[in-house]
Design goal:
mainly beta, 5-stranded antiparallel sheet, 50% strand, single chain, 10 strands, 140 residues
Length: 140
Amino acid sequence: MKRFLFLVTLVFGFALASQAQTAFVSQYSKALDTVTNTATKYMTIPTPLNSFYKTAEISVTYTKISGTVAGTVALEYSIDGTNYYSLTANAAATATDVASQTFGWSLKDVGFRYIRLKFTGTGTMSAQVKGMINARKQNS
């Protein structure tokens, strides 16, 4: 019995300490989307954050498909999943014409439920985008 309780405690401890990355998804529930020319695409987290998080790291990667890649990536948040607002403290990142580019943000004391990435292209271009989030309830 002691061994069983030890194993349950050990597994439960690892589950609490683990940090899973979650991919942002497009409106079609895909982990990748394509921004073409001056289009704006949104990618959201698949499930709302269900509690307060101490930190959240977000990464976004643009991969050039064709043309001259340019545009911006911005973070937006929502409490209800319908009305989104800009995270002004975290300025938008500017995409440049390279084969691949990654941006990252680190948020502290995350209390809102929804986060989305707003991709806006400029000019004649096509780029594949993907985003990841890693939210943690405590510093580690």
